[in-house]
Design a protein that fits this description.
single chain, 13% strand
Length: 84
Amino acid sequence: MFLIELPDPAVQIERIIDTLDSSMPGGHAVVSINSLRVPATQTLGDSGEGFKYAQIRLARLDSRTVCAGLEPVPAPMKSPHNMR
């Protein structure tokens, strides 16, 4: 996971995706990233661990929705790289 300043020529928003939630438009998009260079100072966590971090975050969101009495999100999928 990383942070970068935008606009950056290596990052292109291909299109905005419509969602069912009209209260927060513009939060989803198809993004292409080509030849992006990210300095170590702009990385979040360890290199190669972004998928794991995202899954942990999704699990926390799922727990909060259950506590709030809302429908939980589906269980996160395992990374094809970590399946054994």
